[in-house]
Amino acid sequence: MADNHLSDVTFASMNLAEPLQRGLNDAGFTHCTPIQANSLPLALAGRDVAGQAQTGTGKTAAFLLAAMHRLVSLPEPSGGNQPRVIVLAPTRELAIQIHKDAQLLGAHTGLRMGVVYGGTGYEQQKQMLAQGLDIVIGTPGRLIDYFKQKVFSLKSVQVMVLDEADRMFDLGFIKDIR
After folding, report:
1. How far is residue 19's CA from residue 174's CA, in Å, rounded to a whole number?
2. What are 123-160's pLDDT values in tens digits?
3. Phi, psi of 86 (to 5 degrees)
4. In this predicted model, what pLDDT tens digit does every residue of 32-58 receive, in sequence order?
5. Buried (b) or exposed (e) across 31-52, using 16+ Cβ within 10 A?
6. What residues does 136 pair with on adjacent strands?
7. I want to staple 22 with a disulfide (CB 3.0 to 4.6 A). Which of 35, 79, 108, 171 is the partner?
8. C-alpha of 20 from chain center
9. Could you tell me the domains of the chain?
10. How far apart are CA 24 and CA 75, in angstroms?
11. How does pLDDT run across 70-124, given as a tens digit for each residue?
């Protein structure tokens, strides 16, 4: 490969759902990074994955693609207003960035995605969550707040992602996340 940060593994070889392939094409992604090449096959097979790599190596795309593939490949359970994927991020900036990446990669999936975080838009975010999302991306504090208020349920969750879990634990969210 000309780009030394990419592997020889193509996204096309991963047998991802067609709407995700279209999202990858829109983003201009053809080849996996090493973390994607190593983690995607496991995640797509339904295995739990703990990945560690430097910033900018494609971890976010790896977990988003695996989660979205699962959602578009499996029928939606009854009670379809509840989240099926929850992504926790330690900061609002990271949650917002993950949401942007999810919108890009999942643009053709029809999945409902939203982001919730502290410091702004409390009622607006609460209403969006109550109306129903397939994928919820957010910070622990705000998500836990809404969960305790029964704005959403965890009963339909099929995929849980802890992005930068070590940072969340350092920030004191370990008890709440358990």
Report:
1. 35
2. 999 999 999 999 999 999 999 999 999 999 999 999 99
3. -125, 130
4. 999 999 999 999 999 999 888 888 889
5. bbbebbbbbbbebbeeeebeee
6. 86, 114
7. 108
8. 13
9. 11-177 (3.40.50.300)
10. 23
11. 999 987 776 678 999 999 999 999 999 999 999 999 999 999 999 999 999 999 9
Q: Are 102 and 68 in contact (CB under 8 A)?
A: yes
Pairwise CA distance, residues 58 & 160, whole Å: 18
Q: In a 10 Å sphere around its CB, with 0-12 CB exposed, 13-18 middle and 19+ buried, how is residue 124 labelled?
A: exposed
Report the 10 Å Cβ neighbour count for 123.
7
**What's the whole-model pTM score?**
0.91
Higher-confidence position of 19 and 80: 19
Q: How far apart are CA 50 and CA 43, in angstroms?
A: 10
Question: Side chain identity at 84, as an amino acid letter?
Answer: R
Collapse the DSSP code of 31 into the 3-class scheme (helix H, G, I; strand E, B; otherwise coil) and give the result: strand
Please report where in the chains the tokens 């208020």 appear, as a residue. 149
E runs forming strands in the chain: 85-88, 113-116, 135-138, 159-162
Cα 147–chain centre separation: 18
101, 61 contact by CB (below 8 A): yes
Q: How far apart are CA 31 and CA 25, in angstroms?
A: 11
